[in-house]
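Much of what follows relies on a compact textual record of a protein's fold. An example makes this concrete, so a full record is given next.
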Amino acid sequence: MTQKRLPCPLHSICLMTYRTKLLVNFTALFVIFAVVLIVFQHHRDVNHREELLSTRLRSYSDLVAGALEQQDADLDSTAMQQLQNMLPPELRLTVVSRDGRVRYDTDEPDLGKVGNHSSRPEVRTAWLKGEGIDIRQSETTHRTYFYFAKSYGDFSIRVALPYDDSVQDFMQPGNVFTGFVLLIFPIVIVLLIYLSDRFGKSVAGLRRFINSADRGLVDYDRITFPNTELGEMGRAIMQKYKELEQSNQIIAVERERLTRHFLYFDGGIAIFSPERRKMLANPSFLQFVNTILDTPTPDIDAIWEAEAFRPARNFLELNQKPTIRERQSEAAPVFRYTIHAGSSIFALQLLIYSEGSFEMTLTDATRAEKNKLLKQQMSNNITHELRTPVSSIRGFVETLLQCDTLSEERRHYFLQRTYAQVVRLSDLIRDVALISKTEEAAETLPREDITLRPLAADVIEELRPSLEAAGMQATIDIPERTTMHGNFSLLYGIFRNLMENSIRYAGHGTTLTLQCYRQEAGTLYFRYFDTGCGVAEEHLPRLFERFYRVSEGRTRDCGGTGLGLSIVRNAVLFHGGTISVRNRKGGGLEFLFTMKK
């Protein structure tokens, strides 16, 4: 059975509006102040009435004391009776000696029955302070009196009035002040309601603004404030927040633009903190860094330990110090130099910002020169490469046509040679067409989601006979389910041409390794290397050129078209990446390339 929960009073208080809280607090403060004031006034009125009554009794006491002094303190009954007749009949008179003995009492003629009065409060106070008052029940007559006692040296005189209705009425404080407070209470409540309403509207507007600001949905048209000083402050705060929100939106747009610029910038760019920690870097920067460093690394901060970046490190040490920056002009410190890394030449630029952070850019300085050189050599290379198979075919055909005496065996030999040259010519035309298509009509090539590890395994399986004939082993180090959106034929061609290049030139018994060593921001980072003999350093910058040969006749002797690595480069570029080559320290060639997922 479900038990019904009762509402919590504290919860109800917490849900009260600020206006209600303000009204309750103001009312409580006023009530407390009024009660304290009424109590104070009541106490003051009581003390005043006690003082009036004490003044009256003091005059009686002084009258009796004066009479006793004239009679040399003679307390015979005749003299005291005469003195008693001069006083009000209800007044009780008592004369007490210094030792507390009662020498005369109007209500008790037999003084032997009266005890010592030293312990009576009013008498004790009179001996100590000169006068004393008290309201209590008499131990002698068992009636309640208002006592007043005054000391006169060797004796004290105590006079008392019965604390009857008339005296009690006189002692009661007046109710005028209380009535006045009760009269103004409704007026004060009305004023408090008015003030709390004005304050409450301002605070309620601020609360609505804060709640909507936390949700990011501020309705500036519906949030209003009263025409008060607090309301003006609320409107000013809301206007400043609106301006700040607009500025944040502009900053967010600019930040998105900057991020996109970083990601799609052709060169490498990175922003570092004054402590030289990477804040932002695009994939090209990491790729260029790994091309420059001896060992690829996913940690960009490793550049500060590399020898190639020592000039940049020295420049930062000189220009990041505040004492030096203060002496410089308004222009930001800029430093440029080039780095040679295998087949690539990179231009590095360092720009230091005013607060100490800095920007570093890496640009492939060889790309423009390579493109220019390729355009100049394209026509000559194609003509040169076509001339050889065409000349061979022409010579073989002319021999067959002109020599009728050739045996069938020789005719068959010339036909085989002609067919081989035709196949070579066909492969050459196919490779040239593929390169041209990737450069000039890349948008027409289809794309699909491709899992890379099975694709690489298919390449190895297709090349298995050639690998076994060369005594080679191939290793794939690509994580399972690594996929990318690309062209199947071009991706297949990348892996196949790299491995075929190693099979032809790396040497017998070498090992081939294809590795995907990093995935970041939609980019895949690859490393392919063999353990063969490598090539001379002067040939590295030109290995991706069309028809380039390390030695004359090498490509023809091995049966290739001379376009394999050029196809690899164009296929990598088609997939939004970059590629570089260098001699591996342990021996062989090493290719580093990236592709967009």
Notes: The chain is about 50% helix and 20% strand.
